[in-house]
Design a protein that fits this description.
This is ABC transporter permease DevC. It contains 13 helices and eleven strands. It has 388 residues and is an alpha+beta fold. It has two domains: 2-51 and 264-387, no CATH class; 62-246, no CATH class.
């Protein structure tokens, strides 16, 4: 139907171009609505990606956690014995462990303490895929040596720059002197504004109340060619129910689910997208309604000539789709700039994704089409008898 209408006459385009000021206002409104949706969806995606980045960079095929584990912000531990039990299953090549807790990092310049996520690892077995950690793992073998996340918040101090210049950085962590022996890049997240990696021995010195046999994450590496899902099922069936067996991606989804559904964050971002959608509908409806009102006699004449309501609805929908295209593309390109500004201000990994671009475009088309359908009610009132 629409292809026939486009071939038949450019009526919709001519009507839009006739009132250029009205067209400019409509395009600006749709662009604003789309940018609002882009920003809300971009923030949500960036915050979720930042929250699960450590999970997805774990060097493991399977992960053991406490079934009550929901987020790194409030970790739950379990017995290291479960990890040793997992080592006895067919297909398991090696196991490793992680301690996780929140410490207080002191900025040596301001002397202010700030919460930071501390990861305790076995220096002999790299627990993360970050290349910087792989290269500097041996530096953790001595006590009170740490690797610092240079992509964290600047309130921790200019650690990365100073370390690159001098090869050394000294400060305090939980009121104990530590030396930065290397840097890596993970970034701030919901759970923490920054990260520190240290050896398991140093971790237990920094947190003396912690018991060595209680760990937060167990890492399982499988033998080459082994099916992870099969081993996961065997471990889930054989190990006691005080541990849960997940893939690294499943572990990441646990964290993401907590922030999306266990807090108001998912609702807030969804509400922002909804507001942008409604704003767009109102703006496009106002433009189309005004256009129909201004040309009501012409539409009545078309009806008198035998054109159906279906045809006239098609004209309105064409106008709506033109507006959708004209408003979407400026918003798409402007969002790139806003993402860059947001990244510079927050250090969150916010960037354009193909699925987000497609989703917003579809929402824009629906938004404009709904407005056109609503405006059609005015068009149905165009009575040919009124003009004779």
């Amino acid at each position: 139907m629409f292809s026939h209408l486009f071939r038949k006459t450019p009526l919709a385009w001519r009507q839009l171009m006739k009132e250029k000021t009205r067209l400019a206002v409509a395009v600006a409104g749709i662009t604003f609505a789309d940018m609002l949706m882009f920003i809300q969806l971009g923030f949500e995606s960036a915050l979720f990606d930042a929250a699960v980045q450590p999970h997805r960079n774990l060097k493991a095929d399977l992960v053991l956690i406490n079934p009550q584990f929901q987020t790194l912000f409030s970790v739950k531990s379990f017995s290291r014995e479960r990890l040793y039990q997992a080592l006895g299953y067919d297909g398991v090549q090696s196991v490793n462990s992680l301690y996780i807790s929140t410490g207080q990092w002191r900025n040596p310049e301001t002397r202010l303490d700030r919460a930071i996520l501390v990861w305790g690892v076995d220096p002999a077995q790299p627990a993360f895929k970050f290349p910087e950690i792989q290269q500097n793992h041996d530096d953790l073998k001595q006590l009170y040596q740490v690797l610092f996340d240079q992509a964290g918040r600047p309130e921790y101090g200019d650690v990365g720059t100073i370390f690159k210049k001098t090869g050394n950085f000294q400060t305090e962590l939980n009121s104990k002197a530590v030396n930065v022996k290397g840097i890596f890049s993970n970034g701030a997240s919901f759970a923490a504004d920054g990260n520190v990696i240290t050896s398991d021995s140093t971790f237990l010195q920094l947190f003396p109340e912690r018991k060595p046999d209680r760990i937060e994450v167990g890492l399982i590496t499988l033998k080459p060619g082994v099916n992870p899902e099969k081993v996961q099922a065997q471990l889930a069936a054989g190990l006691p129910n005080d541990v849960k067996v997940l893939t690294p991606e499943g572990f990441a989804e646990t964290e993401k689910t907590y922030w999306a559904t266990g807090t108001g964050i998912g609702f807030i971002f969804g509400l922002g997208v909804g507001v942008g959608f409604i704003v767009g509908i109102v703006i496009v409806y106002q433009v189309l309604y005004a256009d129909v009102s201004d040309h009501l006699p012409e539409y009545a004449t078309l009806k008198a000539m035998g054109y159906s309501d279906r045809y006239l609805l098609g004209v309105l929908l064409q106008e709506a789709l033109f507006l959708a295209f004209l408003g979407y593309f400026p918003a798409f390109f402007l969002s790139f700039g806003l993402y860059q500004i947001t990244y510079a201000a927050t250090l969150l990994p916010i960037f354009m994704k193909l699925d987000r671009a497609i989703s917003v475009f579809i929402l824009t088309v629906i938004m404009c089409s709904v407005s056109g359908a609503i405006a059609m009610r005015k068009l149905r009132a165009a009575d040919p008898a009124d003009i004779f």
